[in-house]
Amino acid sequence: MEKIVERNLLYDFYGDLLTDYQKKIYEDSAYADLSLSEIADTYKISKQSVHDLLKRCDKQLLSYEEKLHLISRHRSIKELTEKIREAAKDQAGGEKILSLTDEILKQL
Fold first, then answer.
1. Which of 2, 20, 25, 18 is CA-nearest to residue 59?
2. Total structural domains in the chain?
3. In terms of domains, do 62 and 90 share one?
4. Is 98 exposed, middle or buried (0-12, 13-18, 19+ CB in 10 A)?
5. How confident is the model over 27-41, as pLDDT tens digits?
6. Residue 19 belongs to what domain range?
7. What pTM was estimated for this model as a whole?
8. Co-location of 57 and 95 in the same domain
9. 50 and 25 in contact (C-beta within 8 Å)?
10. Residues 37 and 90 in one domain
């Protein structure tokens, strides 16, 4: 389950960097939950080609994260914002801080 979530996160952040063809096949696999055979039949390619393309896409998306670190930065900012929210609950003027952290979290 964790691998599926990670794979979807990678696609959400970097999917636009794939070609349209790669995106269609990746989405059919990840979101439409089609089997390799079903995808192969749809695109008139071999099951092995679908498998290879998906592996290449996964590798490419992971490579983008290793270079750009957008997901890890996103997680870090989210964690820090949550800590700020917790600290703000005990402070004077905390409502303004809570409001600002809400805005940050919406933008993430």
1. 18
2. 2
3. no
4. middle
5. 999 999 999 999 999
6. 2-68
7. 0.79
8. no
9. yes
10. no
